[in-house]
Amino acid sequence: AQQAEGSIATEPVTLVQEQETQQGILLIRRIQTGANAPGFVLTVLRVGDFMAQSRPKDADLEITLGDVQTGRTIYEEQPSHPAAMQRTDTLHFGSREYELHFRPSPRFSASHDNLKSWSFLVGGIVTDGLLGATLLLITGTTVRIRRQVDERTQELAEKSSLLQSVIDNVPVRVFWKDRSSHYLGCNPSFARDAGKNDPSELLGKTDYDLVWANEAERYQSDDANVIESERSRIAFEEPQTTPSGHIAWLRTSKVPLKDHTDQVIGVLGIYEDISEQLATETRLRESEERFALAMQAALDGLWDWNIQTQETYLSPQWKAMLGYGDDELDNSFATWERLVDEGGRVRTMALIHDCLSGTADGFKTEFQMRHKDGHWVDILSRGIIVRGQNGEPLRMVGTHLDMTDRNTIARQLEQAAQTMNQQNQALSVAHKRALAATEAKSAFLAAMSHEIRTPLNVIVGMAGLLRETSLGQCQADYVQRFDRAADHLLSLLNAILDLSKIEAGELQLEQIPFNPRELMVTVHDLLTVTAKTKQLVLDMKIQSDVPSTVIGDPTRLRQVLMNLVGNAIKFTEQGQVVVTVEVITDDRMRFAVSDTGIGIPPDRLSLIFERFTQGDATTTRKFGGTGLGLSISQHLVNMMNGHLAVTSTPGVGSTFEFTVQLPRVVETEPSLPNRPIQPRVEPVSTSPARPLRILVVDDLEDNRVIVAQYLQGSYYSVEWAENGQVALEKFQTRAYDLVLMDMQMPVMDGLQATSAIRQWERTQHRSPTPILALTAHALEEEAKKSLDAGCTAHLTKPIKKQALLKAISDYAAPRTEQAA
């Protein structure tokens, strides 16, 4: 039929749909329209039906039709008797040859004699009729078929265009290959996956020629299995290398590609990229696993709502926190809606709507739910939404946490905080009042100290001057009593000021290097005269490993030792006082003061460190004292990270010992041997070549007189100024070797005057003149003010002659005469 110009008839066949015992012939003709591929028209000729319709209705004939090539009878009317006459004609059609046999029927033979001539006539008529009918059939059919082919061709063209449009725009990749896995075609999205701009670039290529060459063997193996087995492989997952080098995951389906003869000529495949879907599923699975573990650890109630199916899961713990068993509540969204309070339901539904609409990925809120026994349970609810590859909401999962106890505690804590806040406010008010009282007390003590020290300076000064005159025994005794009274009053003032600073928390310790051996020499020198007066031995034993330099506050350590050694001398009538110093560790030292005094009763040991307390009332009456020294010493030792303790036996003596933190510094001199310390001899200053010109600034005449008497002699030239303003004017007119400056004065006080003098010196490019503050202000903060204003040193009243002369000797510098 492909090569023939006309129609082709097949061998006689039995049609599968034929229910009667008749043969059929298939007539096939090739057709072609324009440049389209050739097609074929096929029609079925049912021989029995065709012969019945073609023969004359009144002809008494019996007809037989046979196929010459096969020798098979196609159509036959069985005769009822042997025929006397028969005619045979040959028919050529469809490249085949057929024989027609005609004979009269029995009925016709009985009524006619001239059978032969008639039968030839009828046979010719029948043969012509058969030929005419057949030609008419073929011709009409051909015209009709050509018209149908044109219509079908147009329809196929439209369908082909539609099919191509569908293939190009479907949301999956489409491709087809021949039996050797060469690409026959694909859609644009497949071409883009291969890194190509147009599907035509893939024609004739194999997977080895594309970016996924690493997967080519796998792909072609799948192709071969589909082609050989003629069985489809549906929805399997496989990797694919992308043009960027990453690995994508595909869900692929492949089916056999067949031609019009139902022969497999290749493979047709489609796939979709499921990389993001798999990643989402992995994240979801991991999230669910972590979430499940977290729920198990936290014992929170878990809920899970499938948005697609509306299925809901409520964990047993979710129900248990409301007092229900697992089988007492339905796993449904309606269960939550039924038990939640109305306000909580409205708020939560709004949050869920935000998640479903894509404006939020989760929520956190609190509401109340009705417990089985009727009370309300405070619930903290958290939820997150899980979305699909295209962002569509798939499900929501979350937890419920019973916050009832926490909220109750929080309310209690809030109430307690309010109460505490009120108490703190009250304490703050009380604290402010206490601070105000402390400040008032400190101010009072400072003022009291100043006002007492000012006349005391006159008393001490005059007593000292009087002692230098020729006195009788009685007069000398009076002067000595003046000294003792002044010393006692001064000691009391200092103790009260120290105690005030300790109570106010204003006492600060220095951390400076000093020599503990020299400190012990100083204590020995200051108290040895008192000990000798009572005919006592004052012995100091310093162990050989005591370092020469440590870090600490030498002033406060000396104060503690002076208190303890002074008390030991005071309460010892005969015998000795021994001070021992030894190293405990690299940063700790032990000091012990032992005496052979009166001792302390056991029932009084716990009281002696209290303020204004001594061994007993008789002790106070007999020996005097304020009862503040031990209390202050204990505070100072505590501040030095130490501890002060006492052991005592009445009538035998007492031992006070303490350890303090004094970090060692590398020694620069050898240790001294363990021997008693001898009194130190002060060097005598050499006399200046000319008198020192000294300006004394003080508003009180008594103080000026005392200083004038102290400085009598050819070594000093003294001038006076009654306030700071006068002192500044004098200083600007002539040079001085040293200035003694009182601080509290009218017109211009000492701080202002000192600052003005220093400013004037700077503008005149002069070296600073020593200015010694000589004031009744004894507090540390007052000393700091003096030094900050420019004073060289701070001396406190009352001051004795020797102390003043030593200070002048230490700080005075011979003047350089300069024009004013």
Write the layout of secondary structure elements.
Blueprint: E1 7-9, E2 24-31, E3 39-46, H1 47-54, E4 61-67, E5 72-76, E6 87-93, E7 96-104, H2 106-111, H3 115-169, E8 173-178, E9 183-186, H4 188-193, H5 216-229, E10 233-241, E11 247-258, E12 264-273, H6 275-298, E13 301-306, E14 312-314, H7 316-320, H8 333-339, H9 342-357, E15 362-370, E16 376-387, E17 393-402, H10 404-467, H11 473-503, E18 512-514, H12 516-533, E19 537-542, E20 550-552, H13 554-570, E21 576-585, E22 588-595, H14 617-623, H15 629-639, E23 643-649, E24 653-661, E25 692-697, H16 701-710, E26 716-721, H17 724-731, E27 738-741, H18 750-763, E28 771-775, H19 780-789, E29 793-796, H20 801-811
Parallel strand pairs: 19-21, 25-26, 25-27, 27-28, 28-29
Antiparallel strand pairs: 1-2, 2-3, 4-5, 4-7, 6-7, 8-9, 8-12, 10-11, 11-12, 13-14, 13-17, 15-16, 16-17, 18-20, 21-22, 22-24, 23-24
Helix pairs in contact: 10-11, 10-16, 11-15, 12-13, 13-15, 17-18
Average pLDDT, rounded to a whole number, is 83
CATH superfamily caption of the largest domain: Histidine kinase-like ATPase, C-terminal domain
Shape: rod-shaped
Computed Rg? 65 Å
Structure description:
The chain has six domains: 7-150, no CATH class; 170-273, Beta-Lactamase, CATH 3.30.450; 278-402, Beta-Lactamase; 416-500, Helix Hairpins, CATH 1.10.287; 508-661, Heat Shock Protein 90 (2-Layer Sandwich); 692-811, Response regulator (Rossmann fold), CATH 3.40.50. The chain has 20 helices and 29 strands. The chain is an alpha+beta fold. The N and C termini lie far apart (144 Å). It has a five-stranded antiparallel beta sheet with strand order 9-8-12-11-10. Strand 4 (61-67) and strand 5 form a beta hairpin.
